Amino acid sequence: GSDLVNVLARVPTGRLVVLGEPGAGKTMLMVRLVLDLLARRVSGGPVPILASIASWNPAKQDLRGWLSAQLMIDHPALAAAPSADMKEPTQAAALLASGLISPVLDGLDEIPEGVQGSAITRINDALRPGEYLVVACRSQQYRDAVRPEGGVEVTLRGAAAVQLRPLDANAVGSYLCDDAAGPVAKARWDPVLKVLGSDAPAGQALETPLMVGLARAVYNPRPGELAGALRDPAELCNPALADRTAVESLLFDAFIPAAYRHDPACRWRAQDAEGWLLF
Known about the structure:
This protein is an alpha/beta fold. The protein is 44% helix and 10% strand. It contains 13 helices and five strands. It has a five-stranded parallel β-sheet. Helix 12 (244-260) crosses helix 13. The longest helix is centred in the C-terminal third of the chain and has 17 residues, at 244-260. The chain starts with a helix and ends with a helix.
C-alpha cells in the first residue's frame, strides 16, 4: 500500500491503472491504498473512496452519476440537499462536483466484456485536470478493452500503469513454513518447496497471494491440531494434476472444509456453507 502511494505520487496526472492476474492481490492492494491515502490526507483534501465497478453499466450511466448513487448507498446522509449556493441535487453529487472525492475503482474486468472499452471512455469524459483516479483490472481484460480486435483503440487518458508480478519463490516458501508451527509441519512442505518457481503445475499455481493463502489454510495446522491428521500438501505435486488450473481447483475445493474444521461444535457446517455459497 505505502509503495503504491509513492508510485501514485510520482505520476504527474495522479491517474494510475493497477494490473494483475486473477488472485494477484489487486483488491487488497486497493484497500491498503485507500487506508494509506487517508492516513496522509491533509485537512480539507479529497477523500479516497473504494468502489467496485462491477455494477456500473457505462452504456446507461455516466461515472459521476453512478459514483453518486454508490455514495448514497454507503452513506445515506449524503442524499440530503447541499448548501443553497450549490446546484447539485444531493451532497454526494456536490462532493463529486467539487473534486472532494478521489475514486479508487476496483474490478474493471468485472464489467461485461462488450462495454469495457466504453467504460474507459466514460471515465475519460468524467475526469478533470488535477483529479486523482486509480483503476484496478486483470491484465488480459485490460489489454482486450484498450485494443479490441477490429475496434477503436482507447486508453485511460494520462494514466500510468503498474503490473503486480508473481510472488518470489523464496517468499512463498518462507510464508508457508513460518506459519507451519513446528519442524514436523514444516517438513510436510518439502515436496512443494522443490517445485516453487518452476513450470510445474504447483509451482505455477503458487505464484499468487490468493492461492498461497488457500494452501496455508488447507494444510497448516491451527492451535490444537496435529499435522498428521490433515491433508498432505504433497498432493499438490500429484502427477494427476496436469496443469495450474487443476491445482487451483483442488485448493478451491478444499478451502471451505478447511475453514470450518477448527470448531467441530460450531453450529455452522462446511456442507451448509458450500450450499449457500453456490446458491
